[in-house]
Amino acid sequence: MNSLQPALVQLSGLTKRYRTGGGEVVALHGLDLSIELNSKVALMGPSGSGKSTVLQLIGGLDKPSGGSILVAGREVTKLNDDALSSYRNTTIGFIFQTFNLQSHLTAQENVALPQILGGHKPAEAIARALTLLEQVGLAEKAGRLPSELSGGEMQRVAIARALICKPGIILADEPTANLDKDNATHVLDMMSALELNNQALIVVTHDDRVASRFERIIYLDHGELAMGPATQQAAS
Amino acid sequence: MPILYAARTSLRKLRRKRMRMFFGIVPTVLLLTFIVLFSTISVSVNTFIRTHILSKIEYREEIIHLSKLNNPAQTYMPTPSPLSSDDNPNDYTQSDVDKVKTLNHIQDAQAERILPTTSATTASLVAGKTLTVDGFTLAPQETARDYDATSFTYSAGQPIPIIVNKAMFNRRYLDMGGKSTITITGEQLADPQKSLALVPVKSEFLDADYNKSKMLGRTFQMKLGGLPAIPMVALKSTFSGTSGTDVYRTLSTSDIAKLQKTQNDAIGPYWDQAKLAEGVTAHFVIVGVNETPGDSKAIIPTTAGIALFQELYTLQRGARTHTALPAEAYSSSFAGERVTKTGKLSDNGADTSYNVTPGVALLTERTSTDSPPAVGPTVIPIPGWVYRNDEKDGATVSSDVPDFILTADKLSITGITVRLDNATNRPKAQKALATAGYPEADNSASFTDTIRKVNGGLGTALLVVVAILAGINALILISTVGRSVADSQREIGVYRALGARKRDVAKLYVVYSAIQTALGIALGLILGLVLIFPVASWLTAVIAKLGFTQAALDNGVFGGLNLAVKSADFYHIDVLRIGLYAIALMVLTIVVSLIPAWRAARISPVEAIRKAD
Known about the structure:
The complex is a heterodimer.
Chain A: E1 7-20, E2 23-36, E3 39-44, H1 51-58, E4 66-71, E5 74-75, H2 81-90, E6 92-95, H3 107-117, H4 122-135, H5 151-163, E7 169-173, H6 181-193, E8 200-204, H7 208-211, E9 216-221, E10 224-226, H8 229-235
Parallel strand pairs in A: 3-8, 3-9, 6-7, 7-8
Antiparallel strand pairs in A: 1-2, 1-4, 4-5, 9-10
Helix pairs in contact in A: 3-4, 3-5, 4-5, 5-6
Chain B: H1 3-16, H2 18-61, E1 63-67, H3 94-101, E2 106-115, E3 120-126, E4 129-133, E5 136-139, E6 160-165, E7 170-174, E8 181-185, H4 186-190, H5 192-198, E9 201-205, H6 212-215, E10 219-224, E11 233-237, E12 245-250, H7 253-267, H8 273-278, E13 280-290, E14 298-301, H9 302-318, E15 324-326, E16 339-344, E17 351-356, E18 364-367, E19 379-382, E20 387-388, E21 396-398, E22 413-420, H10 426-435, H11 445-487, H12 489-497, H13 502-545, H14 550-554, H15 575-601, H16 605-612
Parallel strand pairs in B: 5-14, 6-13
Antiparallel strand pairs in B: 1-22, 2-5, 2-22, 3-4, 3-10, 7-9, 8-12, 10-13, 11-12, 15-21, 16-17, 18-19, 20-21
């Protein structure tokens, strides 16, 4: 833990309850957590531990039932819908397990999409998208539709898309779960190599090998911080 | 999100989902095709009816003819007096005309008069046959509307515009069937069918020579006045009630000579008979045809009638050989106004003031002393105007007719031409006239009203059908766009996750719907315009089949109106209306697509993505 860096994300008493057919499910129990600037964090835990919920709450995709989410000193829970959209657009970069590229847009257009949604001129956004595709090694496939790309390529496009608005926080939800070993390694290498500039990378995973690539691993179980193997090791 | 970007994205999506797009735009395409076709056709039919039928009928319908002879309240058909008289119950007076003018919805009222003349015949209309006009109605310009006469203005020296009568083509002739005598009993006479077959004076309609459309523009000459013709047959009637007989007998040479002598005696030595016999020959140009059954008058402009009247008068006065006539020889009827005149009386030569009724005694009749006569009529018409000196009533009848009597107002007002302020007010005007004591038998307005309603209905029908189809179109749009939204949950979730605001998502779907509709409109326009030509040809054929052909129309209900249909009549593409409908459809699409678009905007991004994962 690098305590010299100020906290970029500060979760305090974060609670999330879902209503399901069988009653109420508590996903998070008053979670307190801070993530510092320029840190790469792996969020681990078994299924239903609440790790994806944490990601969705930080990403502004969902609202907590209680507690606060401070991001760069801003209370995310108090943002209205438009402000939240803008927050997702400028502060967050999402990388999804299933890539979630828009099927009718080319790789380049997919990468440009967040900037266009953010109000940039489409032509400029498209031009910048190509630079990013170059960075992920897919410049020659800029004009391809997602259906013409492999899984690994799609995820690299998604990474480029997540980076285009230079977000404060990059959130990745099981980014390698749908990839074969080689592609997974490639994507992980890419993430490891990512140079953070007053940013943070939070990766949700249940794969120890993935988590081991990151400098900090946070374990969650039943919606609370738990002692993971690494934490246990450190404690011992 | 810029609209253009949304449009491009939508187009991309539509291209990828061609099948869905196809089903989505089919209703719009059909609707637009229908709008183009129906609006073009309905507008064309509408215009066609308005310009070809309504305007002409309305032009006619602005005119109402009042006539005591056509008054439905009358149970008999009285004969109008040719000359103005205050006490003739069959005539109107100038005060009637003035009163009618003041009624509601009436713009103008003018007198219709009759021209007093013994006979008017022409041999120049049908070769080898002499046709007779039973009388002339002198009418104002407006009357011509009833017969669609294009020009009804008379200028001196030019042929007189005339609306001839179909009835004049009924030629009367004698057919004794080879017999010299035909006797018809009272019993036979009581049966109209039998008597018609037995009476030797027949009438035939000159079908082959009668053709309304060929008649218009033709010129002919007609002889007015002159001496009456000697009858074709002698009729001795002892018929009274249901008994007695009518005996028709072919005239022998001596009979004719005797008749001629009777007539000569009746006219007496006071006229130059040869000069009287000349009559007046006038030139006419046919500008219309009166086909009203039972109406046998020919119609000429009032000014022309007065000119003819003057000419006849001049001829007949010029034929006078004596200045005084024995009054007892004439069962004259006089009409005119009483004026005080200072002048010389022919019998004493002294200047004195006296009352004179300078009316004319036209068609003066003398009753034969034989009653019934052996041959010929019981009364003999005598042409020649006279006036009577009331002071010397019964003593003399003078030929010294002053000029001032020769004005239109000396002729009986047998009808009134009423011009309405507006054809649509016809029923109201009819009511106002009836209330004021001037009932009118003509009820042709109902027919026009029907046409007018049908015509108005066309526009309404288009609006209703388009509204219904647009409603269906809107429902289909809601459903197809709604399905598109339902199928794009993940996509919408991703948009939202990447920072799209609710209105960006809504915008995307509104633009998507609008593009779909725009494509439909474009294809519908093309399809509609392509189909107009075959549909117009088909419609033309249908309308022609209904009887709107030139030949049928010439003699039909719309007689004389140019109603023949051409395909081109239906090509009047109403760009403005089609454009308005297209814009309305676009607006409707945008409004309606807000429903699925708003549903799309409300999709929770986390739900959408979680479902997909």
